[in-house]
């Protein structure tokens, strides 16, 4: 464990949790924001009243529902599709930026993208609604960079690493409730512009945290002795390189768990493999396919939720608002669901390590065995969510919302700790 005092590590953990909770994954509260955009008449020019509607019917539609407007729904779905695509497509480039240019540069890019996006949304209107096609992807990429740079904080807590990582991923899921807060404030008279300008002000907080509580480089795992982090530590590049070397040596020493010797013989040590050998392995390919299929279903559900609820509620805007609020509220509990998966993985890993100490299993085999129950449980939760979401019964959607947030928290948290 680092020689830094516990208060500094706890401050880093808690501020990172707040950052993920308040900013990183707000895109997935899209249904709440769409409700506000529709009220503000975004893309309403695409709507064409049904030919049979009279003036009285149109008026009724404004009170209890909306005229048939598939083109408007398709526009909002397209924005979400583009933003969610960038959330996944840009993960690899942003990961490279984080690896190559390290924490400070990656976070400054994230802050620039995020602040630009919030300011753009703040100054959009129904006439300039097309700017959402630019703002939402920028907001998403900035948010995923916040998450990526914060996940390394788990390295500060040793055997609790998986729990911290899943906690952060749960906070990422829960941040979708932020758009619910914006929706509720809007209904109380707080304008959309005021809410997003308030969001933009927090860039100062992001910058302060970047320079005071996070390293210029990376937080290694395993953590070398007497590790120091943050710009205030005054490390130069040579010290950073030395810390990386020490971490790799520690990792090599713990590659095998043996009861007879603290360090394995050179012939026992596992041969190092290149990045591409892992990237093109069958295990990674199957895991990627599994993740992609489940993630696609989640994206389809979130992106079409507003139109789905409108259809099931027969156009009753008040009922749609109630169910939208219920969905957003359940999202907040992602931060409470995700750590259970991390605790499960940590406990199983410690149990398998004890067994491995008697048989000489490699650390990688121990880590893999600890993920199997987690992956199986996640698959069952996602199956239940998919089945409930496929049934067109409005009250059943409450169960769908609960299963969605639990399965999504387990999916992303477990995948990050995999």
TrEMBL record:
Organism annotation: Equus caballus (Horse)
Membrane topology recorded in Swiss-Prot or TrEMBL: Multi-pass membrane protein
Keywords (A to Z) from UniProt: Membrane, Transmembrane, Transmembrane helix
Gene Ontology molecular functions: transmembrane transporter activity
UniProt entry tagged with the keyword Oxidoreductase: no
Protein name (database record): Solute carrier family 43 member 3
InterPro entries per the UniProt record, alphabetical: MFS (IPR011701), MFS_trans_sf (IPR036259), SLC43A3 (IPR027197)
GO cellular component assignments: membrane
Localization per Swiss-Prot or TrEMBL: Membrane
Membrane-spanning ranges: 12-37, 76-98, 105-123, 129-153, 165-186, 284-302, 322-344, 365-387
Principal subcellular localization: membrane
PANTHER family per the UniProt record, alphabetical: EQUILIBRATIVE NUCLEOBASE TRANSPORTER 1, SOLUTE CARRIER FAMILY 43 MEMBER 3-RELATED
């Amino acid at each position: 464990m680092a020689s830094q005092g516990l208060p500094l590590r706890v401050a880093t953990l808690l501020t990172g949790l707040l950052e993920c909770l308040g900013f990183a994954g707000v895109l997935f509260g899209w249904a709440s924001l769409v409700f506000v955009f529709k009220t503000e008449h975004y893309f309403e020019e695409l709507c064409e009243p049904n030919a049979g509607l009279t003036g009285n019917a149109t008026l009724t539609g404004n009170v209890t529902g909306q005229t048939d407007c598939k083109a408007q729904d398709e526009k909002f779905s397209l924005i979400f599709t583009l933003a969610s695509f960038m959330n996944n497509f840009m993960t690899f480039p942003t990961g490279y930026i984080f690896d190559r240019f390290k924490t400070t540069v990656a976070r400054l890019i994230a802050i620039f993208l995020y602040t630009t996006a919030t300011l753009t949304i703040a100054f959009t209107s129904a006439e300039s609604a097309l700017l959402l096609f630019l703002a939402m992807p920028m907001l998403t990429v900035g948010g995923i960079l916040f998450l990526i740079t914060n996940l390394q904080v788990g390295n500060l807590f040793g055997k609790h690493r998986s729990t911290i990582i899943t906690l952060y991923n749960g906070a990422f899921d829960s941040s979708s409730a932020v758009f619910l807060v914006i929706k509720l404030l809007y209904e109380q008279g707080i304008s959309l512009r005021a809410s997003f300008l308030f969001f933009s002000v927090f860039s100062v907080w992001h910058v302060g945290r970047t320079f005071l509580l996070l390293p210029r480089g990376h937080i290694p795992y395993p953590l070398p002795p007497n590790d120091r982090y943050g710009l205030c530590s005054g490390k130069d590049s040579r010290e950073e390189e030395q810390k990386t070397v020490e971490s790799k040596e520690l990792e090599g020493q713990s590659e095998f768990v043996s009861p007879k010797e603290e360090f394995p013989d050179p012939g026992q040590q596992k041969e190092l493999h290149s990045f591409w050998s892992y990237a093109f392995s069958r295990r990674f390919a199957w895991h990627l396919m599994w993740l992609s299929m489940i993630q696609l279903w989640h994206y389809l559900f979130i992106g079409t939720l507003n139109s789905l609820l409108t259809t099931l509620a027969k156009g009753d805007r008040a009922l749609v608002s109630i169910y939208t609020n219920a969905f957003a509220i359940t999202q907040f509990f992602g931060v409470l669901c995700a750590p259970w998966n991390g605790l499960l993985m940590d406990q199983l890993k410690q149990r398998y390590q004890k067994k491995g100490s008697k048989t000489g299993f490699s650390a990688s085999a121990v880590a893999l065995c600890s993920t199997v129950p987690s992956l199986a449980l996640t698959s069952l939760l996602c199956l239940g969510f998919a089945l409930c979401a496929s049934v067109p019964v409005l009250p059943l959607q409450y169960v769908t919302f609960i299963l969605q947030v639990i399965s999504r928290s387990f999916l992303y948290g477990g995948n990050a700790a995999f």
